[in-house]
Specification:
The chain has 367 residues and is an alpha/beta fold. Helix content is 46%, strand content 15%. It has 14 helices and 13 strands. Strands 3-2-1-4-5-6-7 form a seven-stranded parallel beta sheet, with helices on both faces. Strands 10-9-8-11-12-13 form a six-stranded parallel beta sheet, sandwiched between helices. Strand 9, helix 9 and strand 10 form a beta-alpha-beta unit. The longest helix has 18 residues. The radius of gyration is 21 Å and the shape is globular.
Amino acid sequence: MSQVMIIGTTAMMIYHHRRELIKALINEGHQVSVIAPADDEAKNLISLGVSFYPAEIETRGTSVTADLSLLRNLIRIIRKAKPDVVLTFYTKTNIYGGIACRLTGVPYIENITGLGTALTGGGILSKIMHALYGFAVRKASAVFFQNSHNREYFRSHNLWTGKSTLLPGSGVSLERFNPIEYPAENVPVEFLFVGRVMKEKGIEEYLTAARLVKEKYPDTVFHVVGPCSPEYEEIIGKAVKRGDIEFHGKVLDTTPYMKRSHAMVFPSYYPEGMANVLLESSASCRPVITTPLPGCKDAMDDGVTGLLTPPQNAEELARTLEKFILLPYQQRKEMGLAARRKMEKEFNREIIINAYIKEIAAATAAH
């Protein structure tokens, strides 16, 4: 069997979104190692039987010195561990993991989990990112995309024109995200936002919409769960003080908040790959309210498993939330059940695991 190395931006992300893949690889007899920053979830990865190599990775940083240091460290670890194939995820690790693999001659498989504003925003940084990404991905054994828009972007910009596979995001674990009973009919509607509190995730629109909706429906509750960017700490504090939202910060288990919520609201206009929060809430039998953008619309069926709302438009979001509030209770509940059925049919994480096992076998056989 092969030695499979995974490079990711955080141990937490790998543990929460790749643990089923790791277990499947180990069950097949592969040895698995991980390169990622050491956080609280590193010990959980090690408990699965993984060899863990800590590395500093500044996911949102643009320091040339830090990036060169990362590249040197990746090359050093890869040469030491001697993996047969490397799996990379997320922009920074796709770029520097891919370059490290090219320089060491190790087969690698890249997963394009989203484009990111640095790649698509234009300007000199975007040009640099295009050049780096194109070099990094060019010799990959296989490339996975999470939505067709991302794949077309890579093709139209000549970043990757070879064979590729379209995956349903990272998939969702139907065992970990079980159906959660819908709230009772006679309680006020509660909405839930889960994600990084940052501009591109639509937090400003959510906060404004919460204030507008509560003017007409004062019993409505708006939750915010997720780490807060420093520039939003004061804004979130004022929203809490006004009573517009309840802020819970970063949590590892969103189940208690999911139980209370009637719908997940994710008004993102970030270049998503596939929004995991939409998959997880849908698997939990919660309708989703999101934008008609790649990585968001792909996770739902408008009017069936949730509602679409225009991006960067707080007033329209407020109208969409009101529309949801006014839906008959049974229709809201059925949306959640339909969301679960969609996840079972289209987003089962077993689909992703089987695709990886197939490409790992092909990559190692070709090498």
